[in-house]
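Lab meeting, item 3. Inverse folding demo.
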C-alpha cells in the first residue's frame, strides 16, 4: 500500500509532526510512505476559474504551484493520511487549501470522471482542547469523503496535545489500532 502523508502543521518539530513520526513507526514495515510538509510548499487556494471542469478528460488545474507535485503523488497513492492541528475549530489553512484543490480531480457534474473515487483517507489530529473540538473539522472531512466517494478510514485525535507526551509512547495502542484500521 502506498501512503501519502500530508502534514499540514506549520511546525516541523511540533505536536502533529511528532504524532506523524509515531504513526510512521506503525506503518513503515507494511507500506510505502512519503510525507510532505505542505505549509512550506506553495499551495494556493482554488480560484474557481472553472478551467478544470471544461473537458472531462483533458482539463486540469491551471494554477502552476506545488499542487502539481501533490496531484501526481495523490493519484499514485492508495491512502492519504491527513495530519493537521486544529486551528479555530478547523484544519490549518494549507490543509484546507490542499483539500479544496482536489476538486479538479472530480470533473463533470454527474461524477462521470472522479479520480478521487476509491482512495482511502484518514486523519491524524492534534489539538489544545478536548477532542470534541475537532468535530467540526472531522465532520467536514467525512462529508468531503462521502461526496467524492473516498473511503474514510477514521481519525485519531490527540486532545491537550503535548509533544513529549506523544513521543513517550502513551498513544502506542491507539496508533497501532488506527494504523491497522487504515490499512485493512
Ligand atoms: C492559531 C491557533 C489556533 C488554534 N485553535 C485551536 C482550536 O480551535 N481548538 C483547539 O483545541 N486548539 C487550538 N489550537 C491549539 C493547537 O491545535 C495545538 O496546540 C496543536 O497541537 C498544535 O500543533 P502543532 O504543534 O503541530 O503546531 C490553536 C493553535 C493556534 C496556533
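The presenter then showed the designed sequence:
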Amino acid at each position: 500500500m502506498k501512503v501519502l502523508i500530508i502534514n499540514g502543521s506549520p511546525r516541523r518539530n511540533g505536536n502533529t509532526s511528532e504524532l506523524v513520526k509515531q504513526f510512521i513507526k506503525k506503518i513503515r514495515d507494511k507500506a510505502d510512505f512519503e510525507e510532505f510538509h505542505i505549509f512550506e510548499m506553495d499551495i494556493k487556494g482554488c480560484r474557481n476559474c472553472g478551467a478544470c471542469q471544461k473537458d472531462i478528460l483533458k482539463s486540469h488545474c491551471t494554477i502552476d504551484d506545488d499542487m502539481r507535485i501533490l496531484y501526481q503523488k495523490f493519484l499514485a497513492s492508495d491512502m492519504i493520511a491527513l495530519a493537521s492541528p486544529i486551528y479555530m475549530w478547523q484544519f490549518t489553512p494549507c490543509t484546507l487549501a490542499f483539500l479544496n484543490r482536489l476538486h479538479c480531480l472530480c470533473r463533470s457534474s454527474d461524477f462521470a470522471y472522479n479520480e478521487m473515487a476509491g482512495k482511502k483517507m484518514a486523519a491524524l489530529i492534534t489539538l489544545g482542547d478536548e477532542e470534541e473540538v475537532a468535530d467540526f473539522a472531522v465532520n467536514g472531512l467525512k462529508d468531503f469523503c462521502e461526496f467524492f466517494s473516498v473511503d474514510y478510514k477514521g481519525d485519531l485525535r490527540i486532545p491537550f496535545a503535548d509533544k513529549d507526551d506523544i513521543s513517550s509512547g502513551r498513544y502506542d495502542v491507539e496508533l497501532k489500532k488506527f494504523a491497522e484500521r487504515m490499512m485493512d
